[in-house]
């Protein structure tokens, strides 16, 4: 403040009177004061006020009837029988409750507006600040208290107090937070149920899949065989869901090192979006684009499921597949990188080799 | 008092009982006739309060039947709805279905609860807009603004935790998005995810944990803060709109008893009644249509509750490029910016605004008379700019719905919103500020020249004029009662002896900001200006008579 000189009358008289807004004595219009009170019709005529009274009574009676209606509705309509009965029950109780409440509300507000005195009243305001004497007394009280506590010039005592209070919560917080994360083994994010020879199964019924069933242009929602009924099914499913598509092999662009990850135009990609993890479930056959309905990240399945639009950065991880001796589609290994949204340490888990012995975990 | 009825006697006895024990007399004397000002916009906060009460009531009903457990069960073969019979689901989802189809009034209470939650957030936001645009947050109410702001954040938390409880596909995907966002936090993201879910997503702990947060922690905090909010309203006395007889030293309105007991009390029943009728007639969150949570399916066109849309929109607008790997560690700015940085900036700006404005104006006085938004163009512009950014994010959160409804390409909609997110607030600020200044000029015009009466008079000279009716003192006060605020002027950088003043740079910054706020301004008409305009009017009349234009704006003020 001290570094600014303010233009003429903008500076208010200041802290001396905190309520002085709008009262600069300079060239200003004076506040003309409250306008004259205007009477309502119901103030002036007995008939008018009687009519208002009648209206209010009718509203209260309406409320009363509706509330009773709501209770009747509770007994009248059974639930759990048909959808119609559930609907009737909901509607009758709800309307009874609603109109019952609304009647009271409108009656009360109408009463206040039309019948109660509407003469405006004025209260004075007082500044929030305590007066100087009170402030001085407050400061004195704190001083006296501090003196009584004998804390002055006892730094060791102060230090001991602060340290003890600061450390004490740890014995509460550490067990709380420590337990929250379970086993804290975040490397679980890396591994899924997929592994060498794990068969591809249909989501949600678990039927196994032969390549000849997968026609060109079709899209399959896939889970690992053995997922259904397994322990931690939802956690495993959340990582292992796969989307499988078959297209004309000529339309497929494959990186040389992934040449043997597909089977005759059938490719399988993680269905977990690399953005924030929604299931990437919408496939557009013409463009081979896969769209995440949550935030519209779009992946090109014909070209390594690379991102073509939206907030995701990384391509969907590919599941290397082949066909086993019995003619079923199987995984050649687990994913070679972590599926789903990025984490700080995800790079630790990339470029793992597709070897049959890899899945030691 | 010679004809004391038994009722009056009983009342007197009760009053005596309480007065001799808790000094009730002093409280009644203090509060019964306390004056509150009246305005429809003061009801917005009341709606928030009352929908919270409705939330507590209906929420209590729901807890009687909801089972916060993720244990997998098969829905009974003889229960409604038919489509869910035999389906494997969590107990949370099963109990949600059960209370909807097999508990009388259960579906009603669920629907009232959900509608009340939407209304709670909507009324908080509009109440906050009212407080912002009228400057009700100024000293001494800055702290109450922060309290209200915290209630807004807690409201978001309450909505989020409650939305996730039924454990359906939609809410499960919401949790999954949350998990994805949490994982993107540098260094501790994976551990935070484990901490929230008690292990890997989704785990079996999240529903019970959310339940505790939703029915205990969050509502207890909201309730406590509402109490603080209301106590502070009593301490400060309510603000009032400007008008004749209203000043910074008084509060003009009606007494608490009986007017506000009836009005505000009645309004609670109105809010409850409207919500109950909505719950009875408007289906909401019919979770059986989505099915129990399964990590595989997701519906297209899924939308979160409206107050979460801005986050969804923010995530959708962000391009994916800024995810970097530095020294082997991944930083997902494509998630952190939209989910943490943008909302963080929006909310920080909102929370800090009263302090920023107080610093800029250097005004240390108390303010109890509200501003008309036009009289503070920069604040109003800033408010509309923040609102514009928020609305664009909300719309972006519905870009798929917009695309399908209007047959537009989702990619082009997204690009348009990306552009608008930056340009929109700037345009909104400029347009709003100019509109405010124009409205202020119109106010000045009206004060100086009076109302047009439509009465055209012809003078003997052949000149036509329209007679203008001057404003009454009461009419005029509303237009001239506010204080002009001018930019802070900064003194020289050195004192008289040529020594550099300390903290001069800070003062320069402040003066710049003050100029941004107040350089463009229209000041209210002063008495001398009005007097001058009368004189000027006469002069103009002669001129116009000479030039034969016949247009005179303030003929009635002559003389």
From TrEMBL, chain A:
Transmembrane segments: 56-77, 89-112, 159-178
Localisation: Cell membrane
Membrane topology of the entry: Multi-pass membrane protein
Tagged with keyword Nucleotide-binding: no
Pfam families in UniProt: QcrA_N, Rieske
Keyword flag Oxidoreductase: yes
Record GO terms (molecular function): 2 iron, 2 sulfur cluster binding; metal ion binding; monooxygenase activity; oxidoreductase activity, acting on paired donors, with incorporation or reduction of molecular oxygen
Keywords, sorted A to Z: 2Fe-2S, Cell membrane, Disulfide bond, Electron transport, Iron, Iron-sulfur, Membrane, Metal-binding, Oxidoreductase, Respiratory chain, Transmembrane, Transmembrane helix, Transport
GO cellular component labels: plasma membrane
Cofactor: [2Fe-2S] cluster
Sequence segments annotated as region (Disordered): 1-46
Domain Rieske: 239-330
Role played: Iron-sulfur subunit of the cytochrome bc1 complex, an essential component of the respiratory electron transport chain required for ATP synthesis. The bc1 complex catalyzes the oxidation of menaquinol and the reduction of cytochrome c in the respiratory chain. The bc1 complex operates through a Q-cycle mechanism that couples electron transfer to generation of the proton gradient that drives ATP synthesis.
PANTHER family hit by this protein: CYTOCHROME B-C1 COMPLEX SUBUNIT RIESKE, MITOCHONDRIAL
The family this protein is said to belong to: Belongs to the Rieske iron-sulfur protein family.
Record-given protein name: Cytochrome bc1 complex Rieske iron-sulfur subunit
Organism expressing this protein natively: Serinibacter arcticus
Automatic annotation (TrEMBL), chain B:
Cofactor(s) required for function per UniProt: heme
GO molecular function, one term: oxidoreductase activity
Domain Cytochrome b/b6 N-terminal region profile positions: 14-242
Keywords recorded for this protein, A-Z: Cell membrane, Electron transport, Heme, Iron, Membrane, Metal-binding, Respiratory chain, Translocase, Transmembrane, Transmembrane helix, Transport
Membrane-spanning intervals of the chain: 47-67, 112-133, 145-165, 211-235, 256-284, 326-356, 376-395, 415-432
Coiled coil regions in record: none
InterPro entries per record: Cyt_b/b6_C, Cyt_b/b6_N, Cytb/b6-like_sf, Di-haem_cyt_TM
Subcellular location, record wording: Cell membrane
A single Gene Ontology CC term: plasma membrane
Region listing for Disordered, in residue ranges: 528-559
Record domain Cytochrome b/b6 C-terminal region profile: where: 243-438
GO biological process: respiratory electron transport chain
Membrane topology summary: Multi-pass membrane protein
Enzyme Commission code(s) on record: 7.1.1.8
Catalytic activity line of the entry: a quinol + 2 Fe(III)-[cytochrome c](out) = a quinone + 2 Fe(II)-[cytochrome c](out) + 2 H(+)(out)
Annotated protein name in UniProt: Cytochrome bc1 complex cytochrome b subunit
Protein source organism: Serinibacter arcticus
Lineage: Bacteria, Bacillati, Actinomycetota, Actinomycetes, Micrococcales
């Amino acid at each position: 403040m001290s570094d600014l000189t303010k233009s003429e009358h903008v500076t208010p008289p200041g802290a001396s009177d905190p309520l002085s807004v709008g009262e600069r004595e300079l060239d200003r219009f004076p506040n003309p004061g409250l306008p004259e009170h205007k009477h309502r019709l119901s103030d002036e005529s007995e008939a008018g006020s009687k009519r208002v009274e009648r209206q209010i009574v009718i509203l209260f009676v309406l409320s009363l009837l509706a509330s009773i209606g709501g209770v009747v509705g509770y007994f009248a309509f059974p639930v759990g029988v048909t959808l119609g009965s559930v609907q009737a029950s909901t509607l009758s109780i709800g309307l009874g409750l609603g109109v019952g409440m609304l009647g009271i509300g409108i009656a009360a507000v109408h009463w206040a507006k039309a019948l109660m005195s509407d003469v405006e009243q004025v209260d004075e305001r007082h500044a929030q600040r305590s007066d100087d004497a009170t402030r001085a007394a407050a400061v004195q009280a704190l001083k006296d208290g501090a003196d009584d506590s004998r804390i002055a010039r006892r730094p060791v005592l102060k230090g001991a107090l602060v340290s003890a209070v600061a450390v004490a919560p740890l014995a509460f917080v550490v067990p709380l937070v420590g337990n929250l994360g379970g086993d804290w083994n975040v490397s679980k994010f890396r591994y899924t149920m997929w592994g060498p020879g794990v068969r591809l199964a249909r989501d949600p019924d678990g039927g196994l899949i032969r390549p000849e069933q997968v026609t060109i242009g079709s899209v399959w929602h896939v889970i690992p065989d053995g997922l259904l009924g397994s322990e931690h099914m939802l956690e495993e499913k959340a990582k292992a869901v796969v989307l499988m598509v078959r297209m004309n092999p000529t339309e497929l662009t494959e990186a040389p090192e992934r040449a043997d990850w597909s089977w005759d135009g059938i490719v399988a990609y993680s269905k977990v979006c690399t953005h924030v993890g929604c299931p990437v479930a919408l496939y557009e056959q013409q463009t081979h684009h896969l769209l995440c309905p949550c935030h519209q990240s779009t992946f090109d399945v014909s070209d390594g499921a690379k991102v073509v639009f939206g907030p995701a950065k990384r391509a969907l991880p590919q599941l290397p597949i082949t066909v086993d001796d019995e003619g079923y589609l199987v995984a050649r290994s687990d994913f070679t990188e972590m599926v789903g949204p990025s984490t700080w340490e995800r790079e630790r888990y990339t470029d793992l080799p597709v070897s049959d012995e890899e899945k030691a975990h | 008092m010679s004809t004391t009825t038994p009722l009056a006697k009983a009342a007197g006895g009760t009053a005596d009982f309480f007065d001799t024990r808790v000094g009730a007399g002093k409280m009644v004397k203090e509060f019964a006739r306390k004056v509150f000002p009246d305005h429809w916009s003061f009801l917005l906060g009341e709606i928030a309060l009352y929908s919270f009460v409705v939330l507590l009531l209906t929420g209590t009903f729901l807890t009687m039947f909801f089972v916060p457990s993720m244990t997998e069960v098969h829905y009974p073969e003889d229960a409604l709805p038919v489509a869910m019979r035999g389906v494997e689901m969590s107990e949370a989802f099963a109990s949600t279905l059960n209370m909807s189809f097999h508990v009388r009034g259960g579906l009603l209470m669920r629907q009232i609860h959900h509608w009340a939650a939407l209304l709670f957030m909507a009324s908080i936001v509009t109440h906050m807009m009212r407080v912002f645009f009228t400057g009700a947050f100024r000293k001494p109410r800055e702290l109450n603004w922060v309290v209200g702001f915290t209630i807004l954040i807690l409201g978001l938390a309450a909505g989020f935790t409650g939305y996730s409880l039924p454990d359906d596909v939609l809410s499960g995907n919401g949790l999954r998005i949350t998990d994805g966002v949490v994982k993107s936090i540098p260094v501790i993201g994976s551990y935070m995810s484990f901490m929230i879910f008690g292990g890997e997503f989704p785990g079996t702990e999240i529903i019970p944990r959310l339940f505790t947060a939703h029915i205990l922690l969050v509502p207890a905090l909201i309730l406590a803060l509402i109490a603080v909010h209301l106590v502070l309203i009593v301490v400060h006395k309510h603000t009032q709109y400007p008008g004749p007889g209203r000043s910074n030293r008084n509060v003009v309105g009606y007494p608490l008893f009986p007017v506000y007991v009836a009005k505000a009390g009645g309004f609670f029943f109105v809010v409850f009644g409207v919500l109950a009728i909505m719950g009875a007639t408007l289906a909401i969150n019919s979770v059986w249509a989505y099915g129990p949570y399964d990590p595989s399916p997701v519906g297209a066109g899924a939308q979160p509750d409206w107050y979460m849309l801005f986050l969804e929109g923010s995530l959708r607008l962000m391009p994916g490029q800024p995810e970097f790997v530095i020294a082997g560690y991944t930083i997902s700015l494509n998630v952190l910016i939209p989910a943490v940085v943008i909302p963080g900036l929006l909310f920080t700006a909102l929370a800090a605004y009263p302090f920023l404005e107080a610093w800029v104006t250097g005004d240390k006085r108390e303010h109890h008379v509200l501003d008309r938004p036009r009289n503070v163009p920069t604040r109003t512009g800033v408010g509309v700019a923040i609102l514009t950014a928020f609305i664009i994010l909300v719309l972006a959160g519905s870009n798929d719905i917009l695309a399908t409804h209007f047959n537009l390409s989702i990619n082009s909609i997204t690009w348009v919103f990306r552009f608008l997110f930056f340009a929109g607030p700037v345009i909104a600020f400029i347009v709003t500020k100019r509109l405010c200044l124009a409205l202020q000029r119109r106010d000045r015009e009206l004060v100086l020249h009076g109302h047009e009466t439509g009465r055209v008079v012809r003078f003997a000279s052949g000149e036509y004029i329209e007679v203008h009716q001057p404003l009454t003192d009461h009419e005029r006060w509303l237009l001239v009662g506010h204080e002009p605020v001018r930019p802070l002027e900064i003194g020289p950088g050195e004192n008289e002896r040529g020594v550099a003043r300390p903290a001069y740079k800070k003062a320069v910054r402040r003066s710049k900001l003050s100029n941004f706020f107040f350089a463009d301004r229209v000041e209210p008409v002063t008495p001398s200006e009005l007097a001058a305009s009368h004189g000027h009017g006469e002069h103009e009349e002669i001129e116009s008579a000479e030039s034969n234009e016949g247009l005179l704006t303030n003929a009635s003020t002559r003389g």
